[in-house]
Structure formats: C-alpha cells, structure tokens
Amino acid sequence: MGIATVNPATGETLRTYDAHGHDEIERRISAAYETYRQYRTTSFGERARLMRRAADLLDEDAEDVARTMTTEMGKPIAAARAEAAKCAKAMRWYADHAEALLADEHPAPADVQDSGADAARVHYRPLGAILAVMPWNFPLWQVIRFAAPALMAGNTGLLKHASNVPRTALYLGDLFRRAGFPEGCFQTLLVGSGAVESVLRDRRVVAATLTGSEPAGRSVAAIAGDEVKKTVLELGGSDPYIVMPSADVPRAVKTAVTARVQNNGQSCIAAKRFIVHGDVYDDFAERFTAAMNALTVGDPLDESTDVGPLATEQGRADLEELVDDAVEKGATVLCGGSRPEEFPRGWFYRPTVLTGITPEMRIHQEETFGPVATLYPVSDIEEAVTVANDSPFGLSSNVWTRNDEDIAFFVRDLEAGGVFVNGMTASHPALPFGGVKRSGYGRELAGHGIREFCNPTTVWQRN
After folding, report:
1. 8 Å CB contact between 249 and 287
2. Which of 139, 276, 442, 463 has its CA 20 to 30 A from that of 167?
3. Is the pTM for the entire model greater than 0.85?
C-alpha cells in the first residue's frame, strides 16, 4: 500500500492518494526557499499573531481533526482530542515566548573588553527551509512541536509525513495557510520515503528533523552528514519505569498502566520496562497485571475504549514476534499475549504483561511498540540502574521513590534524556525533549528546541 488512509480498526482502505510528482515537489521547495527570504524579516509580533490565529483555527477544527487521526491510526478518540488541544497550547506558548527565547545574548563587559571589542553580542538568526520527516503515532503533535518553534524563529517548513496519515498531513499543510502565513511557509510534501533523499540533498533545504525509527534516523543522518546539514533526531525508546520500596505503590500502578498503554502503547516515551524492587515486586506485579487485564479493548471511536488497534498490520505482526520469541525462551505471560478473538477484523492486540525476561530474548533489547509490558525484579538501587541502562535506547525514564538520596542517584546515573520522578514521562513546551544513545540527538521544545534551527551569530564590534 502506498499513500492511503486505512482504518486500523477494520482494515478497510478508505482513500488512496497520488504522490506529488517531480514538478510539484520542485514547486514546493522553491516556494519554501523564496518565502523564507522575505518571511525571515517579519517581526516576532507578526509571527505571533499568525501563530495564535492558527491555534484558534485548530481549536475550531478539533473534533474533526481528532476523528481524522483516530480513523487513520487508531488512537482512542479522547486521546485524539487531547492531542489537538495540546498542539494549540504549544502554538500559543511559542507565540508568547519565542521573542524572549531568541533575544540577543550579551557577554559580561569584562569578557567583551578582553576580546578587543567595544561591543559584542550573540544574535539568533533562522536557517532557512527545514525538512521535517514525521511519524504516524502522534500525527498532529509531532509536527506542531517542530512547526511552532521553527516558524516563530523565522524558518519555513516542508513536511514529509508518514504515508498512512495523509489526511492529517494535508490538514497541517492547509492550517498555516488558512491562518494567514505567507504561501510557502509550511507545506506538505505528499511523497513516499524514497523521495526524502533528493529533497534533503537539494541545496535550498538547509536542515532536517526526524522523529521515527532508528533505521529511518540513520538514513537521514547519513544523507545530511554527506551534505553537511544540521539534523535533530528523536528515535525509538524503551523507557524504564523503576519502583523503589518507598514508592506509593497503588499510585505507581495506576500511572504505570497509563504510561504503558497511552496511544495504544505506540509511543517512543511510553514506559516499557518495569523494574521493581523485590520488597514491593509481588504487590506491584499483582496490581499492575490486574489493571492491565481490566482495560477495555475496542473501537477507538467509542468513548469507553481504553486501547484501540495498532496502527498497521505489520506493527502488530512485529509485536507478536517479540512476544512469541520471549515465551519460547521461557518468559511467563501474566495477562494478554494474543489477539482478542472478539475482533477478527482490524489490528488489535491484548494488553500484555510478561515476566521472566532474560538478555537472550529479543524483547529485552528491542522496542515494543504496542501494549506489552515487561517486568523485572531487582534487589537494590544499583541493580535497578544496571537493568535500566542495559538498553541501546536512552529517551526518558520514570522513577518512583520518596527518598531524596534515591532521586539524586537516579538523576546522576540513568542514561536518558529525562528523569521523571513520581510521574510518567510527557512532553511540554517549556521543557526540552530528546534522548541519548540510539534514541537520537538534539532537543525539541523549550528554548533548546527553537535554537536548534537557528544560527547563533557572533556580532563583534569596535567603534
């Protein structure tokens, strides 16, 4: 299947789309380049006015765009509405804060004098047309968290979205135009992955950001490296969720369920490996398994559904392979572990909890992109960190403890881009987001994110 909307709850192809041809791609790249040359000179006030207008339009469209997301990739409708609201919030946050985040920086007077200058400052300038290669799992949010800071900084954007969310992609391309942004500021390229290299190698495209799989990230990084172009990569994750003896176990369990099955378990920052101290392991495992087993699997458009289908048939097959491999090598299934018989159509999978995980199992090292949790008992804090760091990924982490010494230990030693204490990992416009190791590099959101695609220019002056 090429570029198409396929309902994952039924497997039905609702609409197919023709990919943009060479001439249309050329037209859009040219528009992004030419628009940038003028748009970069607009004031922060004007950009903020346009961004707030786009946020208002998104609020007005929220119900329709939520249903589009649910139909295209299967997230529960309540979660889709929340995603749309989060996007509007982020757009307004950058409208309010971009000017201050990109204000000139002034070195200390003594340092200026020591450099031989009468005056010196660091001035942030936009880079140009940026290619955004985005995934299907949060089809609105992943794009907006790039687009809002990029446009507020004075850049223009070209979106290559996942091929299974074309309606959402086209909506995003239209949203900024309707808000009054100049033609060419933000455009959707309706193309397959094979077209990414030629777009990225075009001299008018100066940088790229990608959220997606590790293979996709390696490919984009290699192409951009060959062209010496800036990239930001947010790749996979296998986030640890550590529960220590001092934790509020009932609260930790309740949050753990949400952290594992949010977005039907298809989130890079979802907690996936549950590492629990032996003193509370049995209590946590019993409560967690019961809560996972009680979740309602069903039609994502039904308000009562907790877990909908996986977004693609291949995604479910990949998840099944990981579970089957673990079971064959000795893992125990505490709940789930199979397709729900009551849904013969669509790409559903039962919320699953596995224990008895060993390093020989694929699931120990690979990312589970679906509602499957793995449990690990540990004897002390050192073992908890060792198990947590025994992963090629390092996106974020979750720690449950009321001990200040524990918190300091985890913040120092966990190999991750975030440490969330007594709560689940989430992204917020005011906080930098990104990972280490094979989870990628660079940061999105906050001041760190808006500066990723700016040129911090040294201005040295003598009178």
Report:
1. yes
2. 442
3. yes
Please report the pLDDT score of residue 1 as a whole number. Answer: 53
Helix (H) or strand (E) holding 3: none
DSSP class of 195: G
Single-letter amino acid code for the residue at 335: C
Dihedral pair phi/psi, residue 160, rounded to 5°: -105, 100
Strand 119-126 relative to strand 454-461: parallel, antiparallel, unpaired?
Answer: antiparallel
Closest by CA to 449, choosing from 268, 211, 267, is 211
Residue 185 catalytic? no
The string over 430-452, giving b where at least 16 C-beta atoms fall within 10 Å of a residue's C-beta and e elsewhere, is eebbbbebbbbbbbbbbbbbbbb
- Residue 176 token pair: 């900024």
Q: Residues, the chain, total?
A: 463
268 among known catalytic residues: yes
**Distance between CA 294 and CA 305 in Å, rounded?**
11
Distance CA 463, CA 3 (A): 59
Catalytic residue among 268, 335, 367, 444, which? Answer: 268
What one-letter code names the amino acid at 137? N
Q: Which of 181, 186, 191, 117 is nearest to 158 (CA)?
A: 186
Instruction: Choose among 163, 158, 229: nearest CA to 193.
Output: 163
Q: What H or E segment, with its residue span, contains residue 86? A: helix 77-101
- Candidate list 72, 83, 234, 367, residue with the active-site label: 234
State the amino acid at position 23 in one-letter form. D
pLDDT tens string 393-437: 999 999 999 999 999 999 999 999 999 999 999 999 999 999 999
Burial of 203 (0-12, 13-18, 19+ CB in 10 A): exposed
